[in-house]
Amino acid sequence: MSASTFPDDFLWGGAIAANQAEGAWLEGGKGVTTVDMIPHGKDRLAVKLGQEKRFALRDDEFYPSHQAIDFYHRYQEDIALMAEMGFTVFRTSIAWSRIYPNGDEMTPNAEGIAFYHALFSECKKYHIEPLVTLCHFDVPMHLVREYGSWRNRKMVEFFARYARTCFEAFDGLVKYWLTFNEINILLHSPFSGAGLVFEEGENQEQVKYQAAHHELVASALATKIAHEVNPENQVGCMLAGGNFYPWSCKPEDVWAALEKDRENLFFIDVQARGSYPSYTKRVFREKNVSIISEPGDSEILRHTVDFVSFSYYASRCASADMNEGNSSAANIVKSLKNPHIQASEWGWGIDPLGLRITMNMMYDRYQKPLFLVENGLGARDEINAQGEIDDDYRISYLREHIKAMAEAIDDGIPLMGYTSWGCIDLVSASTGEMSKRYGFIYVDRDDQGQGTLARTRKKSFYWYKKVIASNGADLS
């Protein structure tokens, strides 16, 4: 691999989310958000899925987001470590409830704006471009209680006000924006994805797709506002990526895989193309879904994104009978276990070629620049007798996926950059664990919230520093 495989202006870095890293859940005027209600332990999944209405905290549960890794107080130390690795981009998110604690106020919280202004200024001090997600799996709980979250059309107005506030407050500091993180997860994890909880007997598909419509309108409106505030702003959508492979060459399995891909790509089809795809008419009819839209929605949706960002951890498999008790629950997006690839300790398939396949499919479909904003291996890291963390398994995973990115670039795909997930250890969104680690930097904290929070460089820290310095040419 030559240095020219990656463009000279390729952005190298890492990614975190406010709700998994910041902590300080009630400091600086911040309001309570959906993720603050999601416990670690046996009830976590039911709450995430919106099956258990959780509007109050319980004394017998641990809520990992409340302190997380205390990035709120330690961001200067952490940004300095990222700069030491050579980051040119750092993906993070703004906690909506730091800017608007309830979500429906007319004026923002000055302390929240000051915090993010300081954070982004710290990035710029090291010549690191912030890549900022407006809504990364956190909705102010007031909006859930009072309005039903994204099932309510009023959310479009609230989000547009929040987005404009951010674009204006951080103009000159941030030019790369994402509207909603992994927007398709709304269908699979409705409470964590969009603050949705369900009433007994209601058509959940109707609720989810109506909420999706509101998010899509809000995303397009935010894109329009971003370009009005500063024409240099670049706005992307964000997909939980990974193609579905047919379980076999049986035509029914091929069709099932196509349907599962469409289910996930539906959101990006709208955000990147500017209208609902033709296949949704039949999907909605068969799910008994009737989208309520307002005059002007079609025009708003035409404000398409500038680039398509995505996460990639694993490919997936689908068959015509995959819902008959044979699908894997390793990830929130259900999949059959692929016998041709290895899997992580948490059951996520390891498939670097799948990344190249996904990138080719997405560019063929959208013809917009791509940005890989999440990718990594969740693993248990052990500190040896010398106080070191030899995470060769992580290096191996990342090496093969960076090679796949290079192949995709050689295929002719414009890739803007790469931000590996959890560049510093943080709370796992799926399980709430700290022991499921992704980072180049170890954080001393366990699954029960105990530890000093001290930061330690792993072996992968020095490896990734070398990768960045060589612009992806040296992966040894």
From TrEMBL:
Keywords assigned by UniProt, alphabetized: Glycosidase, Hydrolase
InterPro entries with a match to the protein in the record: GH (IPR017853), GH_1_N_CS (IPR033132), Glyco_hydro_1 (IPR001360), Glyco_hydro_1_AS (IPR018120)
Catalytic center residues: 374
GO biological process: carbohydrate catabolic process
Organism domain of life: Bacteria
The keyword Repressor is assigned to this record: no
GO cellular component: cytosol
GO MF entry, a single one: beta-glucosidase activity
Family as reported in the entry's similarity comment: Belongs to the glycosyl hydrolase 1 family.
Name of the featured protein: 6-phospho-beta-glucosidase
Organism listed in the record: Winslowiella iniecta
